[in-house]
Amino acid sequence: MAKGNYIRSLRQLILLTLLLIIAGGSYLSRARSTSWEEPLWVTLYPISADEQSATKNYIDKLTTKHFIAIEQFMEQETHRYGVAIDRPIRIDIGLPIAEQPPAPPESRNPISVALWSIQLRWWAHQATKNQPGATPDIRLFIVCHDPKIRPRVPHSLGMQKGMLGVVHVFADRKMQKKNNFVIAHEMLHTLGATDKYALDNNLPLFPVGYAEPENAPRHPQQFAEIMGGRIPLSDTEAVMPDSLRQALVGKQTALEIRWIETLKKEPVEPVRADGKVALKK
Length: 281
Hints:
Elements: H1 2-33, E1 40-48, H2 53-60, H3 68-80, E2 89-93, H4 110-128, E3 138-145, E4 157-159, E5 164-170, H5 176-190, E6 224-225, E7 231-232, E8 238-239, E9 247-248, H6 251-256
Parallel strand pairs: 1-2, 1-3, 3-5, 6-9
Antiparallel strand pairs: 4-5, 7-8
């Protein structure tokens, strides 16, 4: 009996040690990623959701130029908040992945979610271990859907633990600008940014989910706060932005990803003379 207790205690000690090592490594990785002292490498791994020819054609023709707007958005917003770094993220495209990521659990039971999180991280490791090049800071799995057979895509997600995301997009070049907005949103989740919209109706939360909460009158807003997800037009109506040109990083999000140290710090002047942000063409 005593021997059994000893073995059980030893196993628990080993497990605790491994968890501490993993947690410590994850903490150091996240801390480095939001120090903003050097660029972060983000690799996008395309996945066909439906094996349609249109989806395959979309994936085969993807290049980094299709995602340059995300790099420009991040560069512009870091500068707006006075962060002294050029090109804060650099996007690369990995080889297509054949396997589908594990689906999230239907139940929000903490144990089920935790087990799925571990499963997803293990799947991501296995799916990318033979990819060429160095391991990126952030891994985003871009699951592409043919809009002709699926007009609405599943919910996307980004995880700070493991710094990875599963992003569902439309395999349609006409939707690329909106796809980039969703990708940027999920990418910021991996850096610690939280959602700023109501789960029951997707309306941005005031004031944290508003790009310009100080505006008077409050509505309509002209921009979407990137983690708010939509442009508020009234207390009960909001629309998806057409592109990242209609998006800003709000102060709460800037605080979460360590662009500012306190909400009292004001961002520097926007790029345009009229006080609005415009991405470079």
